[in-house]
Specification:
Largest sheet: 4 strands, mixed
Family: Belongs to the CRISPR-associated endonuclease Cas1 family.
Subunit structure: Homodimer, forms a heterotetramer with a Cas2 homodimer.
GO molecular function: endonuclease activity
Number of strands: 12
Distance between the termini: 28 Å
CATH topology of the largest domain: Four Helix Bundle (Hemerythrin (Met), subunit A)
CATH class of the largest domain: Mainly Alpha
Strand order of the largest sheet: 1-5-7-8
Radius of gyration: 20 Å
EC number: 3.1.-.-
CATH superfamily of the largest domain: CRISPR-associated endonuclease Cas1, C-terminal domain
InterPro entries: Cas1 (IPR050646), CRISPR-assoc_Cas1 (IPR002729), CRISPR-assoc_Cas1_C (IPR042206), CRISPR-assoc_Cas1_cyanobact (IPR023843), CRISPR-assoc_Cas1_N (IPR042211)
Amino acid sequence: MGTVYITHEDAFIGKTDERITVKANKQLLLDVPLIKVDGVVVLGRATVSPAVVMELLEKRIPLSFLMATGRYLGRLEPEMTKNIFVRAAQWEASGESERAVGAVRGFVRGKLKNYRIALLRRQREAPELDLQRGIQRLEDAIAPIDTTHSINSLRGLEGAGSAAYFGCFPQSIKNTLFHFPGRRRRPPTDPVNSLLSFGYALLRHDIQGAINIVGFDPYLGYLHVERYGRPGLALDLMEEFRPLVVDAVVFNAINNQKLTPSDFTAEPISGAVSLTPDGLKIFLRMYEEKKQSKFKHPVMGRQCTYQEAFEIQARLLAKYLMGEIDQYPPLVRK
């Protein structure tokens, strides 16, 4: 089953034998075996029984809390793995070390190459569009990555490439009922930005779970500078997956009319836009289906799901930081 999403306000999450149950208004909404659960995400307000908390901790299943709008609140985290060697290598590489710069090169290269591939695919699908300028700007940002030795300079390349990609974003939206005014985060004030922010929050939950399994400290990143309470490494590893998973789901939902403007609601004071309960169910189902879709991993040479790829990439990063491989290979899908 993968991740369990609880969207019903004031739900009660309980445990019966080896199963998680979700009830609301004395009605059973969900009954699923724990063996099928990789993670639990609560959207909105819910009560979690002590028995469920104990079971999730023992089985090393993360529990994340998000606002109904997708804003991340926090998570219940099982104990770190005992692999101190991974964390030692992670901390040893902190700062402007050669290893840190190499890791950041991988994160930025993966993200920008996947952006470029997405625009090239869109250009092939719709030759009447003129995306060449954005594609060229991305190529200009990708070209100097291997010869850039400063993390700040690599951040600049990442920013330039992202700006080029989002500059072309409106042309990738085929549904004329949706518009993209530019990337707006806090809060998202239109449906497209709402989906992006919500999807990235879900992706953060999944990536953080993967790096905890491998044994990393999620708060020590390289591309994302240290900030109290921010899981920098989870955000680092997210970068290459943003276009592959979240952006792909957003385009599918909008362009194939899985969601319509009526599936969104706006908060009257802040203007924050979020999904309605019905829209939320549709988007969560699409996100979960994307995570479970299979492809051939270009490095491992075997079929895997995106859910599995999160952990594969975390393990490849661990191998790189521990000196077992010469370069961190980001996941780039052609």
